[in-house]
Write a structure and sequence with these properties.
The complex is a heterodimer of chains A (444) and B (177). Chain A has 444 residues and is an alpha+beta fold. Chain A has ten helices and 21 strands. The longest helix of chain A has 27 residues. Chain A starts with a strand and ends with a strand. The relative contact order of chain A is 0.10. Chain B is α+β, with helices and mostly antiparallel strands and 177 residues long. The chains are: A alpha+beta (444), B alpha+beta (177).
Amino acid sequence: MMQVPLDTARNCLEGTIPAVIATCAADGTPNATYVSQMQYVDAGHVALTFQFFNKTRENILANPQATALVIDPVTSASYRLSLLYLRTETEGPLFQAMKARLAGIASHTGMAGVFKLRGADVYAVASVEQIKGDTRPRPPRARNLLHALRLAGQRLGECADLGALFDQTLALLAQEFRISHAMLLVADLPNQRLYTVASRGYSITGVGSEIGFGDGVIGVAAQYRVPIRINHMTLEYRYGSVARDGTADAVPLESAIPFPGLAEPHSQLAVPVTVGARVLGVLCVESPQDLAFAYDDEDALVALACLVGTTAAALQQNADAAPHETVVPGTPVPQGPVVEVRHYRSAHSVFVGSDYLIKGVAGAILWKLLQVQAESGRCDFSNRELRAMPDLGLPELSDNLEARLVLLQRRLAERCPVIALEKPGRGQMRLVLRGRLRLTEVDD
Amino acid sequence: MRRTPDSIAVVQTAIALPQEIATFIQSGISMTLASRDDRFVPSIAKGVGCRVGPGRDAVTLLVFSNAAEALLRDVANCRQLAAVFSRPSTNRTLQIKGRDVTTAPAGPADVALARRHIALFGEELRPLGWSADYVHDIFWHDPVYLVALHFTPEGAFQQTPGPGAGAALCLEPGASR
């Protein structure tokens, strides 16, 4: 009998080959049941899906001792796990993570609509025994995740501002983690929404597109502050047509920037970017292949998201602390035809000509900058100054002002050739006008 | 010593598995066996072959002893087992409870049955993306370790995922024993 750490058997817990669990009733009758999903919780715990009130359920409540058999889908090694049932969680991060994975497994095995998670049964793992038998070598990984993380630590530390941090994160994912489809969203906590600030590997950038907390893998990851990983295509966690193509009637046209995600992702992993207990945003990666992301990838991306969160918080603090420098008077008045910029007061939606540009806090900021520029000719502003403007109604320091400015800067670069926002220094911004503007305020 | 139900029961009616169930469990599908020790700690092992007797009131399951040490020790002691059978392509699953378990070294016919079972299971799994070699690697061991477990079925339960899971399946009266 060879005892091994639970981590050795973690590849068995991807749901590829169903685990089997043996339990024993109070009268001594043994019972065996296939388990749709066994989830690795930590080095000493696993969780099993509780879906139906069956004999296993009755048995573990009467006699918490259980033994499970799992098989590695690559090496063919089998392991026996000695388990002790502890508790059932019917909500919260573990429950949500298992619910999402079960949706993928259900859809892959033709059980969509049948599998329904009632609870996550948490078991202590007393021992893991490798069952005798020949095994196959595990093929080498395409990349060394630990080394990729080391490089990430170095490169993220070199980023001078939030925009660079977002781009560097996606570049690292592509080059060092070999993940081709990725996006980064920042949380708008008061409104419980997330907006895309950067993406890579999609036909559109989707910068400015929004996802609600609780919606799909990204929204659930943000709401419960837990990594959500699905190994197969599932309709249950797909972003609806509303988010995808912006054609649904329920959403006002101006706010429907198409979401950049793959139309049919077969693997998805969304990891919350946090600082302490606060969610800054979500890092989401996708693949058109099944089983593209394993537990090790999840670990690596959680560590990467920690680096991104800590660095983002430091950069935000830096920008807010920067002094307001004396400004140089305006740049030369631009020439060319007049472009109308309209601001709808209720949602701070800004249109340039007939094209929707941006809304919300970023919309309000742009409108303020344009007004001050029109009145005084000033083009240079600071974060500190924006926070002091009461009519902008910016939230406390905890608000991701810097991230909103990155969003505004990127939407302008994508959609509006006549206005640009530059970052001449830490906590500074400069409005650059390349055409003549007519500002129209609309009360709606 | 703890008294188990089969030590209490004096007379037990023999039952027979319906032909359809007998055919299903011999068709080269996934099978897993469970038993338990004196402290009711469960044991578990994979099965590699199934034979149903002519009256369908006796079942033989094959296991490799080097991969089923605890289970063999437990069945020798409590003489009870549970066996779950599942066809991955359809998710059809059922469990059979057995009593009066006895074990015997496997003969040449049993070795042939185990080979046939693993080959059939490989065929079953091929459309799902698994190679026959892989299936063989998981289940096959040196035939000197092959052991036959004989038992009397005493109940069968539906375990296909869904609302009907857990329901007892109708068995037929068996020949008197």
